[in-house]
Amino acid sequence: MQKRHIPITVVVCLLLAVALAGYLLPATAQKLPVRILFHNNGGRVIFSHLRHHRNYEIACVQCHHETKTEHDRQQAAKAEPVPCGSCHPASFDQDYIAEHVNSFPDKSYCVKCHHAEFGELAFDHEAHKEYAFDDCQACHHGPDIEDEPGHCNQCHDLAGDEYMPSLRDAAHKRCATCHDDMFDKGIKGCSPCHRMKDMTNYSGSYTPCQQCHRTPNPDRELVLTRTNAFHDQCMNCHRDLQKGPYGENDCDKCHIR
């Protein structure tokens, strides 16, 4: 090989090595996605994440809305915003139920949804006898169901079925006849009877949402699906700004038919 060909050969080999390394090595994950493609029945949507964040200078917390207090905002500044799909699934199928916990960086995020677990029940039976003037049937069934008043769990178990209400449902239904003011407060009305656990250091299993959230607003889902969450968040923002897609006939401004 002539000497003048040696530099050319070296350069070609280096270029081939760089090309091969670039082809084989995985691409570095983008810290902030430039665009996100959503597949749905209404037509695919290309959402420009970087434009909304950088060009429009929209703060992360305006869309990633898990930060409601100053403490939360300080904590969020130290971590990456949680992706929308971590909470808002495409559909509430078994895969979501089994895998959604893995979407979060650590267990501290659990208490954002599982915000209450109850400890020991504070119920003064003797005091209630006085309130009812020793009329046991104010709480217990009459002789047509049980000869003498007994413990509720003699018949009602934790699960219940179509023939027998669960212990929780039976007790709540009976308690609500006197304490409807507590039940009107929702979960805030639980504390007079239930001892709340400190959820910041909680490590047990979590009660399903529907155990407490039995009567949500019929116009609002307890946790929105991803489609409804985006429509709710995005369209409200555009409606407030009076810019971009937000009207009933503006679907084609986001969706590609």
From TrEMBL:
Pfam families: Cytochrom_CIII (PF02085). Residues 39-117, 119-183, 189-255 form the Class III cytochrome C domain. InterPro entries: Cyt_c_III_dom (IPR020942), Multihaem_cyt_sf (IPR036280). Transmembrane segments: none annotated. It comes from the Bacteria. SUPFAM superfamilies: Multiheme cytochromes (SSF48695). Keywords: Electron transport, Heme, Iron, Metal-binding, Transport. CDD domains: Cytochrom_C3 (cd08168). One of its GO terms (molecular function) is heme binding. This is Class III cytochrome C family protein. It comes from Paucidesulfovibrio gracilis DSM 16080. The lineage of its organism: Bacteria, Pseudomonadati, Thermodesulfobacteriota, Desulfovibrionia, Desulfovibrionales.
